Amino acid sequence: MKIENRVYRFKAERQNSWLDTISTSFAQQLEENTYPLRFSIVDMIGPQIVIEATIVRFSSDNKYAEALRDIEVVTPRKKAFQGSPFGVVQIVPTGIRCEVGGFAGDACPATNLLASTVDFLVTHPNAVNASELNEMAGNILYVEGKALDDFLLGHLALLPVRSNKISTFVDPTGLDYIDYVVNTLNAARAVKGINCATYAVLRDELGVSIEWSETGCAVGTVLNPMAILEAVEHFIEYGTQAVGGVSVIAGVTKEMFAKHLRGEIPNPSGGIEAIITHLISKLFKIPTAHAPLPYYQDIKEKDTINPRASAEFISTPHYFCVLKGLAKAPHLVPLSTLENVAPHLTSLNNIGAIIMPADALGGIPALVAEYSEIPLIAVTENQTVLNMTNERMKMRNVIEVSSYLEAAGVVVALREGISLESLRRPLVTAQQLDLPEEVAPLNEKVH
């Protein structure tokens, strides 16, 4: 099994929606025995679409080959109706230098604000994780990014739980820090009451390292992903309900991290963490999240003037936030249809809006929103290194707002069924529609 970062360029005529277009055209570009762990439209040049993707190559006899041949984006399912309770999805993509959420959990206040306006909010670890801190509100469902994509594609439902039994894998590259990891597990048990008493050191080093995409996004690779998968299988046999992990991330330089602190580039380690957890989510359908073991002894400065990054400096293993998130992370339940989802499950039918940065509309959450005609609230002040705005995507369901404060107001209006145009001025008069010319009934003869 091999993980690679690829760029795909191909011509495709837009169909009913971008998801219709991508689910056929992009899938045709994939080589045999290749699975797209993550991908996003990053540019359009005339009829040419440019996609950056992280893929998994696997052999035909790999034990996970059958599961990896099932590509969810090829068979998306549309939202069937607006269910109750009413929820929203908050997306803060990792590795793209979000102005809000591109640092250490600095999107948590915005996420909690949005959560206060709805019955529940679904988000992914990047939006709320901050080393030792995870202050997400009680009605937030903590769902790993790949699982969240599959939830939005209609393939998974969420089952809220009271608690999870968590196991942790440790990259042997970071054995010098094992005491920090064990102390974090014990502190979480003694102080927070989290069920996280088990961990395992992987048999082989993972070989986790960063890479940069053509657009300047932080991505990366894992040389030995099977080491993780073997450990997760063992955990599940032991009764584990959620999996956390820590590994050392190679390739981050002092100059890179200084640029990140100044807000000039994405967090170098963000993208690779998502790749690790995406693979676990895909193959095991289990809550998961990851934290980097210290890679910064001679890289990070002693302090920072950027408060958004300050949580980076109050922790060594950066792992307690993961344990807090996984402690009550919902279980993932495969769905065969969205037409008759059991009432105790949360599905795409409960989602009334998706909120994300306004210049990052090329990923699965935005494409799903258009496909299922879900309002897509695009926040312009949350700028990223990308330039996939609705000016380029031309989706009819986008509601552009300047800030998360404004986004919260839009969510309240959607929740209450208040027309957005009624809240704006000028309010134009009602428009008359001309009915089509009368057509003679089929049983009436026309002379």
End-to-end separation in angstroms reads: 72 Å
The average pLDDT value, as a whole number, equals 94
Largest sheet: 6 strands, parallel
Number of extended strands: 17
Backbone shape: globular
Structural class determined from secondary elements: alpha/beta
Biggest sheet strand line-up: 6-5-4-15-16-17
Enumerate the spans where pLDDT stays under 50 for 5 or more consecutive residues. none
Radius of gyration: 23 Å
* Oligomer status: single chain
**Count, helices:** 12
Helical fraction equals 25-40%
Q: How many structural units, i.e. domains?
A: 2
- The ordered H/E elements are EHEEHEHEEHEEHEEEHEHHEHEEHEHEH
Strand content: 15-25%
Describe the 3D structure.
The chain is an alpha/beta fold and 447 residues long. The chain folds into 2 domains: 73 residues, Dna Ligase, domain 1 (2-Layer Sandwich); 248 residues, no CATH class. It is built from 12 helices and 17 strands. A hairpin with a 5-residue loop joins β10 and β11. α6 crosses α8.
